[in-house]
Amino acid sequence: MTGAGPIEPPLSAFTFPDARSWGPDDCVAVGGDLAPGTLLRAYRSGLFPMNLPDGRLAWWSPAQRGILPLDGLRVTRSTRRSIRRYDVTVDGAFEAVVEGCADPQRSNGWITDDIVQAYVEMHELGWAHSVEAWMGAELVGGFYGVAIGGAFFGESMFHSRPDASKVALVRFVDAFAGSGGVLLDVQWATDHLVSLGAIEMPRDEYLVALAAAISAPAPNLWPR
Question: What one-character DSSP code corresponds to residue 217?
Fold first, then answer.
């Protein structure tokens, strides 16, 4: 259920380059901060944050954007069998999910302490959400992201039991699509996400789809 909805933070002190000036590279800008107002301006502009290898904060808009069509999720026989194994919740353990995604033992880790703190603050304002998979009282998988209007921007997922994060995704996609969700953004169409049904969308087309999605009513999914 929803309450009053997310809280709009103070405007960012930073602006981003006009989309018409973005070149073919996925990295569009460097610098700024992770304040809620900056993050919201970024997502509404088609950008998301991720540090460069040298530690500088950078803003990304892939030339080929990964999206997961809401009618295109691929559910394997193994995942279908696993659905009965796990309970799935929304916003039941946001910080624990982000920490699971930020586990330093994971390969190619990119979620810094600053990013964890920034998204916890976004969650407290009602913009960032998590979806959890549980086995009894044990958190065994999930993912988190940012919701604006009818768009959900997936950030990262983790699992400690087979298919746990996939079950969370299946349940989420069903609920998101069924309650009016429009766009599920997954940033890059990695091999893993392609196996789940993700496709690539050229940046110009994505920005048009994004504008329509964030203007749509928010799905009735997020507890407040």
Answer: P
pLDDT digits (tens, 9 = 90+) for 25-83: 999 999 999 999 999 999 999 999 999 999 999 999 999 999 999 999 999 999 999 99
For the chain, where are the E strands, in sequence order?
Answer: 27-30, 48-51, 57-60, 64-67, 87-90, 128-135, 138-148, 151-159, 183-187, 199-202
Dihedral over alpha carbons 114, 92, 65, 215 (to 10 degrees): -100
Q: How far is CA 72 from CA 4, 8, 28, 137, 198, in A?
A: 32, 32, 29, 31, 8
- Dihedral sign for Cα 83, 147, 190, 110, please: negative
Query: Tokens in use for 32?
Result: 């700024």
Please count the other Cβ atoms lying within 10 Å of the Cβ belonging to residue 184.
Answer: 26
139 beta partners: 134
**Structure tokens, 38:** 């900056």
Residue with tokens 């960032």: 128
**What is the crossing angle of helices 36-45 and 113-125, to 10°?**
90
Can you name the residues that pair with 202 across neighbouring β-strands? Answer: 64
